[in-house]
What does this fold into?
Amino acid sequence: MTEFIQQLINGLSLGAIYALIALGYTMVYGILRFINFAHGDVYMVGAYMGFYLAPSIMRGFGQKSIASGIVILVAAMAICAALGIVIERLVYRPLRNRPKLTVLITAIGVSLFLENAGQYVFGPDPKAFPDIINDHAIEGLGDLTVTVSQVLVLAVTVALLLLLTWIVKKTKLGMAMRALSFNPVAASLMGINNDVVIAFTFGLGSALAAAAGILFAISYPSIDPLMGILPGLKAFVAAVLGGIGNIPGAALGGVLIGLVETLVVGYSDTIHIPSTYRDAVAFAILILILLFKPTGLLGAADREKV
Amino acid sequence: MFERPKTLFAVAVALSFAVSKFSGGVNPYYYDIILSIGINIILAVSLNLVNGHTGQFSLGHAGFMAAGAYTAAAFTTFVPPHHIATTLFFLLALFAGGLAAALAGLAVGVPSLRLKGDYLAIVTLGFGQIIVVILQNIDAVGASRGFSVASGYTNFFWTYFFAALTVYVIVHLVDSTYGRGFLAVRDDEIAADAMGINTTKYKVVAFTLGAFFAGIAGGLYAHFKQFISPDGFDFFKSVDIVVMVILGGMGNTAGVIFAAVLLTILPEWLRTVSGCTFLPHWLRDVAQNRMILYSLLLIVLMLTRPQGLFGDARLFRRTPKFKKP
Amino acid sequence: MNPLLEIRDCTVRFGGLKAVSELNFAVGEGELAGLIGPNGAGKTTVFNLITGVYRPTSGDIRFAGKSVVGRRPYRITARGIARTFQNIRLFASLTVFENVRAAFIMHLSHGIFHALWRGPGFAREEARIDAQVMELLEIFHLGEARDALCKSLPYGDQRRLEIVRALATRPKLLLLDEPAAGMNPTEKQELMRLIRFTQEKFNIAVLLVEHDMRVVMGTCHRIAVLDYGVKIAEGAPDEIRKNPKVIEAYLGQEEPAHA
It folds into this structure.
């Protein structure tokens, strides 16, 4: 039983990271109906921003202090938000009314560019992420091993989810986002500036991805320019699992993927699936959902008009 | 270019045979590039059937290639040759590879039928990745350490024979009334369905046949490099092939062949550039990282010429050659 | 005599919305029937039910005595129902000729292996199809444009090409979805003549869904009126014109004559 709870905790903190990335996929899909393939790479850039900024920020705000942690997180989020907005402006906006396939290929191009430019700029070899918190196991939990970073990942994720909910439900831009996802034409007739809302959505999604990148790097302190590919794909699966375009769905999907993946690895002997198959788990889930419930857990059907 | 495919095919085969008689003295470096070009032509033209003609954007072609490469390599490694002629033995291995890949294609095609565009791309990517993960876990073929193939059967003749065969089959298939079905599925699936076209069947045929030739290419590759590893067939390899198809112009066979040649030579050429000391440092760096260029190429191409380098697919404009009886 | 097409108590729901409600309607062989109604009345939905794009929630649709419910669209087309689309759906990258040729696929006796082997039988069949495509194109005055990309045709010609393409499947029943949409009065006159001509020349039944009253009144023998998915009237054009329910449904939003 302890073993099972342990797996749940591990899965939850991994799932929280997937959830943060999945939100970006789902929000962009919600308003533009396209999969931003490069989203996973923005997450990678987020981690690298943390890597480069951490030493100087910690010099100013104190080694391993809460203040430094927050400043690093916010700075990386801001830089990636800007990156997301720039990508949208330069590449996706000119293609807005082009065939879906053109946009998809472009997104793959952007993704490859970030990965390879990353290898060139950051260097292809993995880097050790600096310690920005005092990571250790929390004592007094018996056989359970819960680390500070795991608690931190969950706390930051919950805080960001609440903030996002507030932005989407209460702010003008958030409401405009929702309006746009229902009906872009009607939204622009109501005086909503679609360009601003779309840029804002990209910024928001990219900031969340950056946060995920930092949290991942804190928990697994080795980063490399290709680190965004698999989490990106898994987060996409999470968004589809939750029902693409649906914000609570993305969060739920992320957590579920994290849990299933951790459980498959943790119980690989019992269920006779070697743990080396962990990366295939998400894809198997994707194929199953698309076959049996393509709308996802919380999504609504989107039917082509004939 | 493909007005008389049968003749063209015969000429290509005869030419490969003739050239292969003189290939003994060729510099091994060039020989290597020439074989790579042939294999890439097979890959690109077969992917073009799926992505270009049928409009089902697949990102898993390297996975099918892997299935073919491993099956063919396992065949020549584990099946005792008995007393069959070496050539026949090799052809059997290639055929087994093609068949295994076709089965994998069928396994991907059938569940993916309902999916379109982005979703299909990601599911095929996922399938390709699953194939790689499975190979990483099969110890008999070296798992993630890679698999050494003892026999280097692949030569100039067989590479170009199969390249010609691939082009022949796909051009013939598409250029017939039957073949209009692929294009109809691509242009408008709902209308195709309403015109009595079994869209499911066409998609499955495209996936299976495309995968079959990718498998053949894999078998050729395995017996040419004599070493294969699962990582060599990952997502990036699929992207390589996709770039050839997009650059050549989706659905334009001649363009895709040209792009396959160009993109096989380009990295070699870039390597030369990166060795030129008189060029600025950054340029040499960029030349060394071909993937940066590929990605920029994709983006710029989509922004400016989404139909690829070679215009609006002349292949479809041509009027059929059959005259009234 | 049994009708060619028979819709029996058909209902279709999308979520909570009843798009079509207990519809009963029939089209006889060689008949020119019309289905009209204001915007959103469920006319196109009826087409999508008949052609298998949607499946009715309840009820039955029979064609030539056999149910077509649950059949895939291409199988229904093979039974003898062809259609056009409200928002033209031609094969955009193909020429005029190739668009029609694609509709001959269902009649092919050769398959993939003949296409690869190309024996004399294959050449004969391709030549026969060529001739038939050209014959159809000539009948509809599209022969000159055979090598043009269908996208480059004027709007009216695109609509005509869609009809030709549908006829190439050799239907017993042709469904036309708002063929007059976007046409000017002269083009509409031409269209009405074309529909009558098609029906007589090919001796097929035609079911016309139309927004424009004048076109329907001028072509159809019998008309059914849908409003909010319910059939509110059915009869000859003159009866429909005078029917108070129809006038009310139309006056609710627009003048019928200009609708």
